[in-house]
Amino acid sequence: MTIPGNQLTPPASAPGVSALPVPADRAPERTEQAAEAVRLTDVSKAYRTGRAELVALDGVSMTVREGEFVCIIGASGCGKSTLLSLVAGLDKPTAGRVDTGGRRVGLMFQEPALFPWLTAGRNVELALRARGVPKGARQAQVAELLETVRLSDVGGRRPHELSGGMRQRVALARALAQDADVLLMDEPFGALDAMTRDLLHDELERICADRTLTVLFVTHNVREAARLGDRVIVLSSRPGRIIAEYEVPRRGPRRIDSPEVARLGATLTDRLREEMGSHGR
Fold first, then answer.
1. SS3 content of the chain, % helix, strand, coil (to 5)
2. Mean pLDDT, rounded, for 221-249
C-alpha cells in the first residue's frame, strides 16, 4: 500500500510488540497473491454546514486485499464512519475514487437495529428477501445462518427476549445473509460487556476464516483492534488522514489479554495520545 505525500514518522514500537510499524510514506511491498478487494485513491470528503465546509477525510489512499481483516482507529470525528459509508456506496467522495471491483458489500452497525415485532429468524430473512432469494429457499438459509452464529435455538424469539450479545449475533447473521464479499463493521461490539465482546471476537474470527471474508472494522478500542486485525490503520484527527499503519503477524490464536495484544494496544494508545495532543484535545 502506498500513501502519497505523507511524511509523518510513526511511533517506535514498544519492546516485544508483535506488529511492524509502517512509515506512512514507505509501506511494505505485499507479497500475497490475494486480489485487491477495496481500493481508495486520494479520497476526500467534505460536507457543507451553512457557509462553512467541514472536511471529514483528506487524501486517503489505502488497499484491502481479499480475506484481509483491517481495523481502523482514530479520535472521535476523524472520519472513520464516513470512510465506511463511502466504501458501502451510501455516500460519494468529494474527490478521489473508491473501488470495490463490483464486490457485494455488507454493513453492520453498533446497534443491532432489529425489528422488534419480528423474530430473530424473520429479521435474518429480511436480508434474504431483499436479495431476491425465493421464499421456498429462505427457511433453510435462515437456519444455516443462525447456526453459523451459534443461535440455532433462538430463531423463534423476538429481540427483547435476547441478550445484547445474542442480538448482535442476529445482526451479524443478517449481515452475512447479504452474501457480501466485503463486510464493513462500525463499532459492532462497542456497547457490549468485555466478556461478551471477547466471545464475539472468537466467533467473528471463526466466521471470517470459514467464509474468507474481507473486513473493514472501525473501533475506538485499541485492544480490540490489536486482537482482531491483520493490519491496523490510524487516522489523524479531523480531517482524517492515514498517519500510521501496523502489520500484525498471526502466530496462532490471539487473546484479548495476551501480552502481545497488550503491547500493541499500548503502542496504539500512545500514537493516538500523541495525535490528539497535537490537536489540543
1. 35, 25, 40
2. 91
